[in-house]
Amino acid sequence: MLAAALLAGCAAGEASGPASPDASWSPLAQAVPGQPSVPASGQATRRSAPAAAPEGVFGAYLAGRLAANESDAGAAAEALLAALSAEPDEPEILTRAFNAAVMDGRPDAVRLARRLPDSQLAALLLAGADAQAGRWDRAETRIRSLPRQGSAQILQPLLLAWIQAGRGNADAALATLRPFTEGGQLRGVAALHGAMIADVVNRPRDAERLIRIAVAEANEPNMRLTTIAAGILARAGREADGARLFNAMALGSDDIALTAGPAAQRAALAGRAVASSVEGMAEAQVALGAALRGQGSPELALILARLSLRLRPGFAPAQILIAEAMADERHVAAALAVLEGISEDDPMAPLVALRRAALLGRLGRGGEAVSLLRRLADANPGAPQPAIALGDILRRERRASEAAAAYGVAIGYLARPGASDWPLFHARAMVREQAGDWAGAEADLRQALALSPDQPTVLNHLAYAWVERGERLEEARGMLERAVSARPEDGNIADSLGWALFRLSDFPGAIRWLEKAAELEPRNSVINDHLGDAYWAVGRRAEARFQWRRALGLELEPGEAGRIEVKMRDGLPSATALR
User: pTM (2 decimals)?
Assistant: First the structure.
């Protein structure tokens, strides 16, 4: 539900819900279908040669628009601000320059916002600036002007309540949130913000009542909610309840559990996670941004995170959300630079290190990622998350034996493996198999199935391995029938079932499933190769050679081309065809 997604905040990186982004907040919202709009200067009438880039204001405008479409906020802001300086009264350039300035975190955004009275994004930014300056009446007027629809429908009551609290009217603030805390899909997030407001104004009983609602509404514990709740409960004399929240989060397998240690607990109890109304507004914006990113809207997530960071410089959840939104748009180096700006003393530093390692891996800097994760593991003995991430990096680096050892360390930290731990055993099985340790891989696959018996991925892996080895063929077929029932549109599983039937000499059944697999995955060389073998086995020689030839034109594993070329020349030996 949406409330739980908002409660998760950007640290969890997970969100869901029905809200759809308000188009007018997007930097691309003003895009005109077809050809780009023409600046007022009239320079668009000058057509340059096809090979030449446009010059002047039109060239800068087009460059900025292209950069915005590529989600390159820095280049977009640079170009569009240059275009605006040449054409300061062109409305479309003004809007685009403002949006890009917000996306890139530039100070120009405030100046430009004052020229956009009808922009929701401008109203949000200026309301934040007014709140920072103590102009609460003006901030409230701006927030009340937002339409009660789309994303603003979620954000408006939260911001309004914080502004009322900033004016010194806590009763009005809690009254604004009361209709939402009494029921509905926003109950959890409204209760959370009501609890923080009550905490800021020293009403511990109200804060405790509301934070218990927020915790109850959350689907699972998460770092930001736990940190806020622990402090509120401690100030209400319920410190043991806050400690239990941390302990519950520490049992989770998600990497965020890494930040749930004693240091995080001490930090939560040392002071308020949200100490002012301005910080509360930042909290609301970053939480909605995280929810929208989870719905596939990284642009809006980045905008809201930038607004949050303006209100609360150095706010790690906002910086993490900015980095994740950038990475979603494939600006991995820029995302890494944002994370590197977060202090190592921040309570979320271990989580940041995990994110940095993942980005280093994406940039091909696996050695640096491995070193970072080894340091993180040394600093957090007993935590499985660094070892899991290390195993993932080493697996991508094709260092199978080292990856297996890293996964083994993580498994050793599990007091009692549960159903959610099957991916860890499956990951170790893959690298053990790559390292030539089939006995160890088979044991891990069996353990993964013991933990989660109906996982199609694991059923397929173990059964296909048996088929390739000529072992337990009937048992493998049964497992693959279960897997294909769970995922009927998975071409790889259909191929495995077809190949098992081929090995069992059920050639009509094999052809039926292999043809379906080829329809689902037409560019998979293994599937086409298998289908060629099945055609040959029933005497369809021309079709067999067609499939083998097709397989040769696709991506192959090393050494496969020579094997298929022999079949193209000689066909399958009769013994092979009837196996």
Answer: 0.77
